[in-house]
Write a structure and sequence with these properties.
The protein is an alpha/beta fold. The chain has eight helices and eight strands. The protein is 44% helix and 17% strand. The N and C termini lie far apart (56 Å).
């Protein structure tokens, strides 16, 4: 009886905003496994886009398949496994060499035969084409916005994202606009160091955003004050 790994993935990036959440995928997959009487060895969960190869958990999945821990994968859809040619090729190669015997998807049937692998290849190619087109269309939209005179990114420090008559625009922030104006006045006066400017922003309530490396809530670094303001202020957040 084949043994299966459950693989659930959802990227935090915008192109997958309509996809099922990971808990929802796991619920559906476990219910499917129970109905199909599938033997599940482990559940692997990943929150990373498939646009490029190099996913840590996916690589672990492939490695464990090669080591013989399981010979099947249960996932919500083929695009959960791969949206790039390298990872798609790795799955197909495992099927060709017999190290991977089966793929199960609640959303589509798969048969491990020439026709099934051909249809799987089409599914992978379709997923890759979707991501490629999404990138092109996003860039086209940002360029068109810039040509109309609008800032094509998140509002910089001192401004805010607004919507007027259904049109997304950037307007001056009543709270942070005066702070930024004062920041530039201090800098132009030539009497303040970058450290003092950073402390000024901190006193006004602007702190670094928590991330994987530190807990945040600190004054902006001197280099951030010098190079990031106002164009990269989305790296920070007001409190």
């Amino acid at each position: 009886m084949p043994k299966y790994f459950i693989y659930a993935r959802k990227s935090t990036e915008s192109e997958e905003c309509q996809q099922l959440s990971i808990p929802a995928q796991l619920d559906e997959l476990r219910d499917f496994a129970k109905k199909q009487n599938l033997q599940i060895v482990d559940s692997l969960i990943e929150s990373q886009t498939t646009k490029k190869p190099g996913r840590k958990i996916f690589n672990e999945l492939i490695s464990r398949i090669k080591q013989g821990e399981a010979d099947g994968i249960l996932s919500w859809h083929a695009d959960r496994l791969a949206r790039n040619a390298v990872d798609a090729g790795r799955i197909i190669d495992l099927l060709d060499t017999g190290k991977l015997l089966d793929l199960k998807f609640p959303t589509v049937d798969f048969q491990n035969n020439p026709s099934g692998k051909f249809m799987l290849s089409i599914a992978f190619a379709t997923s890759k084409n979707y991501v490629d087109n999404l990138s092109v269309n996003t860039k086209r939209g940002l360029l068109a916005k810039a040509r109309r005179g609008f800032y094509p990114r998140q509002a910089p420090l001192g401004y805010r994202n607004s919507r007027i008559n259904g049109q997304k625009i950037i307007t001056v922030s009543k709270k942070w606009g005066p702070v930024v104006a004062k920041l530039f006045q201090k800098y132009a006066a030539g009497k303040y160091t970058l450290k003092q400017l950073s402390e000024y922003l901190f006193d006004q309530g602007w702190q670094t955003k928590p991330n994987k490396r530190d807990s945040g809530h600190q004054p902006a670094t001197h280099s951030s004050v010098e190079t990031d303001y106002p164009t990269k202020s989305f790296l920070l957040r007001p409190v």
